[in-house]
Amino acid sequence: MRSGNRASGYPRRPHATTRRREGRAIEPDRKETQNTRDLLAELAQQPDILFRAPFRMQYAALCYRRGFEGIEVLLVTTRASGRWIIPKGWPIDDKPPHKVAAQEAFEEAGVLGKAKRKPFGRYTYLKTLADGQRVPCLVQVHLVKFAEELPRFREAGERRVEWVSCVEAARRICEPELKGLMLALYRKEEVKERNRRGVPN
What we know:
- By secondary structure, the chain is α+β, with helices and mostly antiparallel strands.
- It has helices at 30-45, 47-51, 97-109, 166-172, 176-197; strands at residues 56-67, 70-77, 84-85, 88-89, 111-115, 121-128, 134-149, 161-165.
- Strands 1, 2, 3, 4, 5, 6, 7 and 8 form an 8-stranded mixed β-sheet that branches.
- A hairpin with a 6-residue loop joins strand 2 and strand 3 (84-85).
- Helix 4 (166-172) runs antiparallel to helix 5.
- The longest helix is centred in the C-terminal third of the chain and has 22 residues, at 176-197.
- The chain starts with 29 loop residues before the first helix and ends with a helix.
């Protein structure tokens, strides 16, 4: 099942449309900005769900790698609406959260890597269940350092999968807290790279 070539050296150069320079200001995309506004408006209109209904837990993988122009992160689309998100899923019995996150990354995007046990952060959103019920979810995010990308995986063909810069990811996704995590990862990795090169911060 796990067939494919192991990544060596730098990952394959991303498509030109996915490359962005983090040091440059980027105008917000109208469609993505509207998606975020719609989400915030929906949350504001349903305070009972947010403040009275119990939150359901999920675990997510924030997969990252160093590309030719800096840190890149993995995004996938939802199967229903096509929104950009990160791989995530429900808890699995007898499996620690960081391993659940790593499993979701493989099942949804074919990405293998080492997941950090300590959570990188959390975000909230409203999920629509199969019966149409809307429930609030708390998503615990674990960093997954890219190691290998395989062409065959469980949900292949069901989602779009792209590697993009942290700034581009923050622009595409709707959840404000997740946007913040993308930018926090960018700052964290850039500081590490500067320290490695001996460049003052």
